[in-house]
């Protein structure tokens, strides 16, 4: 990147990097290590002569060797372990290699393979990374966080998990630290958040995974999962200590259990900048796809009638984002907007008579029982006939739930039915894209929760959008960090989704995908971050001084502060 008028900023990625280490300490530090690429002058300057083979390689040669080593691993878990080891040795090479093979490696460094690595965390354990806080030692929280970084301003994003609901594989206890690490990798990879300005944390509250409790190699707190007041006090102690130590950091809650995720988010979101990807990220990326689909269908978001099939953390999170968008676009109250969304869970349509059975997130979507006396609230087909929705979204994990008859019924009432089977993994999808196109005579507008190959329909190749949270949450985090947002508000999230939807290929070609490809994620993140920064300013949430007023300057200001995977000259200090 050429010189910029913003090159003076503390996070600006330019010039030499100060290095206080010499000799083997340089090679053992993944942030400074360049391995065989170290030039002769730096080998002399930093006492590396004799510690490396004679030949200086190019970056391309180093990348080729690393990729060959990666390909030699016969299993995806083996490849995941190789990449984790590479990250421990050479941070820049690790990110360069992923960026060069992003689509191939994404499922290995994240879902689904990361789930296997997490399930085997204690058996694969080599080098500890992150901060481990245990519920039976709450008095150690502040000291543990204090020793994790030199200065309070050194951390921009904290990702924290209690390991209860990991990537669809459930309670993984202390192994949850790997999901915190993986999310921070995505922040760096997708939005240029500086990797040395992040902090992964696990709240080890025990585990109800009996297999782990019976495993003599399990590294976590060998105790059934602690709940209730003790749990809440532990989470509160962490949040307060983290906010005290790192007052400008965004706290990202990840993979908390269904009974805690929304409750914790609601408690702390009015107090500090925090975010939950399972709730808000899933909601944002799905709303972006819905927004693009509504544009193609010639509908206003404010007029949409929606059915949410599956009302867990993801389902209610998506419903909340759609309700926020309806409210902001129409001027309706949040409660009025929620009346346009019918949520269905295992017991059927959520009804007011079920209030004692519903969690906090579900209660605001409970329908009046009298409205359902004429039809069966437990039948999704009856709901479709009754509501005549424009949008049907599945987060139920019930494979095949969107049957041919149900889809054809919806297509009677909607010219371009918007149907999103989002349950993961692929085997749990509510319907297959090929069937949706066949059952709607090619009229469906669809997005899925996993990658699918294009579908042939009506003599055309139709791209299938993947609702991949990685296209949205990194940009939201980047915008919150760079603006030093006091809070992450609903309006900021809606603006983020608009920025993502604006880049949908379907806006130029109605047969194209409803969301942009993850391959273009860094530029997507710039647009999202800019939208978040502008909204933070509008709401008085931005604390950062000197934010450019011109939109072109704002994007340059953002790009200059994004970390890039490239070797910088080292300056001895």
UniProtKB/TrEMBL annotation:
(S)-malate binds at residues 424, 468. Residues 279-537 form the Malic enzyme NAD-binding domain. Divalent metal cations. Prefers magnesium or manganese. Keywords: Metal-binding, NAD, Oxidoreductase. Belongs to the malic enzymes family. GO terms for molecular function: malate dehydrogenase (decarboxylating) (NAD+) activity; metal ion binding; NAD binding. Its EC number is 1.1.1.38. It comes from the Eukaryota. The active site is at 110 (proton donor), 183 (proton acceptor). GO terms for biological process: malate metabolic process. A divalent metal cation binds at residues 254-255, 278. Residues 87-269 form the Malic enzyme N-terminal domain. It catalyses: (S)-malate + NAD(+) = pyruvate + CO2 + NADH; oxaloacetate + H(+) = pyruvate + CO2. Its cofactor is Mg(2+); Mn(2+). SUPFAM superfamilies: Aminoacid dehydrogenase-like, N-terminal domain, NAD(P)-binding Rossmann-fold domains. This is malate dehydrogenase (oxaloacetate-decarboxylating). Transmembrane segments: none annotated. GO terms for cellular component: cytosol; mitochondrion.
């Amino acid at each position: 990147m050429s010189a910029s008028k913003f090159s003076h900023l503390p996070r600006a990625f330019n010039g030499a990097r100060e290095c206080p280490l010499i000799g083997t300490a340089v090679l053992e530090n993944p942030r400074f290590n360049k391995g065989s690429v170290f030039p002769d002058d730096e080998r002399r300057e930093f006492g590396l002569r004799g510690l490396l083979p004679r030949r200086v390689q190019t970056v391309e040669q180093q990348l080729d060797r690393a990729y060959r080593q990666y390909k030699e691993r016969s299993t995806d878990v083996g490849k995941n372990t190789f990449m984790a080891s590479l990250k421990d040795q050479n941070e820049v090479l690790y990110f360069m290699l992923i960026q060069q093979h992003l689509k191939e490696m994404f499922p290995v460094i994240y879902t689904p393979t990361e789930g296997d690595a997490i399930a085997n965390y204690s058996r694969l354990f080599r080098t500890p990374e992150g901060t481990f806080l245990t519920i039976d030692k709450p008095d150690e929280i502040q000291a543990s966080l204090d020793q994790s970084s030199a200065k309070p301003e050194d951390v921009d994003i904290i990702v924290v998990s209690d390991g209860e609901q990991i990537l669809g594989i459930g309670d993984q206890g202390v192994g949850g630290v790997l999901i915190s690490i993986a999310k921070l990798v995505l922040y760096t990879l997708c939005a240029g958040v500086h990797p040395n300005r992040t902090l992964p944390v696990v709240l080890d509250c025990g585990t109800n995974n009996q297999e782990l409790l019976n495993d003599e190699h399990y590294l976590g707190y060998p105790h059934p999962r602690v709940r209730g007041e003790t749990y809440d006090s532990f989470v509160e102690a962490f949040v307060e200590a983290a906010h005290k130590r790192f007052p400008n950091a965004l706290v990202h809650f990840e993979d908390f259990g269904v009974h805690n995720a929304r409750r914790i988010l609601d408690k702390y979101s009015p107090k500090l900048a925090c975010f939950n990807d399972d709730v808000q990220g899933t909601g944002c990326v799905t709303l972006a796809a819905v927004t693009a689909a509504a544009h193609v269908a010639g509908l206003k978001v404010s007029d949409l009638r929606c059915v949410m099939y599956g009302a867990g953390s993801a389902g209610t999170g998506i419903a909340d984002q759609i309700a926020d968008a309806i409210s902001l676009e129409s001027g309706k109250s949040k409660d009025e907007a929620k009346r346009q969304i019918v949520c269905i869970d295992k017991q059927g349509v959520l009804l007011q008579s079920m209030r004692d059975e519903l969690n906090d997130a579900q209660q605001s979507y409970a329908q009046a029982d009298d409205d359902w006396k004429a039809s069966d609230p437990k039948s999704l087909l009856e709901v479709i006939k009754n509501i005549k929705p424009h949008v049907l979204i599945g987060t139920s994990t019930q494979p095949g739930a969107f049957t041919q008859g149900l889809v054809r019924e919806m297509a009677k009432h909607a010219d371009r039915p918007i149907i999103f089977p989002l349950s993961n993994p692929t085997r749990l999808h509510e319907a297959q894209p090929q069937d949706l196109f066949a059952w709607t005579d090619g009229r469906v507008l669809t997005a899925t929760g996993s990658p699918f190959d294009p579908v042939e329909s009506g003599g055309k190749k139709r791209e299938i959008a993947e609702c991949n949270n990685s296209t949205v949450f990194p940009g939201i985090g980047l915008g919150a960090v760079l603006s030093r947002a006091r809070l992450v508000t609903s309006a900021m999230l809606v603006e983020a989704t608009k920025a993502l939807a604006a880049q949908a290929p379907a806006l130029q070609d109605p047969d194209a995908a409803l969301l942009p490809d993850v391959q273009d994620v860094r530029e997507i993140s710039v647009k999202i971050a800019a939208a978040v920064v502008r909204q933070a300013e509008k709401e008085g949430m931005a604390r950062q001084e000197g934010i450019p007023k011109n939109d072109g300057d704002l994007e340059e200001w953002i790009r200059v502060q994004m970390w890039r995977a490239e070797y910088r000259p080292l300056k001895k200090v």
